[in-house]
Amino acid sequence: MLKLLKIAVGSAAAIFLADLLGLSYSTSAGIITLLTIQDTSRETIVISAKRIGAFLVATVLSYVVFPLFGYHVFSYGIFLFLFIAGCSPLRLANAVSTNAVLVTHYLLEQDMTPAFIGNEVLLLLIGAGIGTLLNLYMPGKGKEIRVMQYRLEEDLRAVLLRMSEYIEREDRSDYTGSCFDKLQTDIEACKKQAFAYMNNTFFQESKYFIDYMNMREQQTAVLRDIYKKIVSMRTVLPQTGQVAALLRETAVTFGESNNAKDLLAKREEALMRMKDSELPVTRQEFEDRAVLYGIMTDLEYFLQLKREFADSLTQEQIERYWDGA
């Protein structure tokens, strides 16, 4: 709705200003505004810059083609062929349509004088300028991302607690991976929102949210591996309780501002206790003990991902996103 409002108001304002300045083809300024307003502020600025660059190319080509071949439709075809061919390697293809329309004004007026070129320059600057200015304002999404972060962490907590419960059960027939469905859906939604926030923010280190979501996505992949190991076990060993306790503590304390150092230390302590315990007697106990060690290795990687993320943060990011949380 906000984008539609910007398009309507911006296009009308562009036409009004062009009329006020006495420009020919003033309605083109409104169309340029419409085409300039994109989904994000960053995209809008990029497209505006490309259109200005493409306009320079279009005007130079027009200045060569029309005086040389005449002001008729065949000349316009020659111009269009050269213009599109020239814009493609310069990555200006998405700026072709706007400038192709502006060049039709040269064709219709049969005029390439500096004064009329100035008319086209002003149409472009008014249309692109108003569109860019309007789209610099985007409603803040910081609070919304925070809410989504909280929901994502609750999803992860639920998965870990469920693991700590089922790893101590002999019957895991009703233990399915359905808990990952909501988690994955929320991760995708969070990443989409984080990218939108980054593209609408110019004065903050908003890339933090992208890195955070990527870290949680990697952790989710690790949890899927742990889930597969849990369902493969056939017995409940004495050491299972230590792994379950560590999973529970991780679920309770793994939040955004936890750098995972304490959890990694506790994981090492639990692993040492497991190594000091009696050797397995049966083949099944041996296999399940090996699975437990695999789970502990996966859990180390899970925590290490958070540790690396925390270590990569600048002091400014910590103060903004952790201390202020």
Task: Please characterize this protein's 3D structure.
The chain is an all-alpha fold and 325 residues long. The protein has helices at 2-20, 27-36, 41-69, 73-87, 96-109, 114-135, 142-166, 179-199, 207-232, 240-253, 261-276, 283-312, 315-323. The two termini are 30 Å apart. The model has no long low-confidence stretch (mean pLDDT 82).
Tell me briefly what this model is:
With 325 residues, this protein is mostly helical.
Which parts are unreliable, with pLDDT below 50 for 5 consecutive residues or more? none
Main sheet specs:
none
Distance between the termini: 30 Å
Number of strands: 0
Described by the principal axes of the CA atoms, the overall outline is: elongated
The computed structural class is: mainly alpha
Mean pLDDT: 82
Rounded to the nearest angstrom, the radius of gyration is 30 Å
The tally of helices reads: 13
Q: Return the string of H and E elements.
A: HHHHHHHHHHHHH
Tell me roughly what share of residues is in helical segments. Answer: over 70%
Q: What keyword list fits this structure?
A:
elongated, mainly alpha, 325 residues
Topology:
Blueprint: H1 2-20, H2 27-36, H3 41-69, H4 73-87, H5 96-109, H6 114-135, H7 142-166, H8 179-199, H9 207-232, H10 240-253, H11 261-276, H12 283-312, H13 315-323
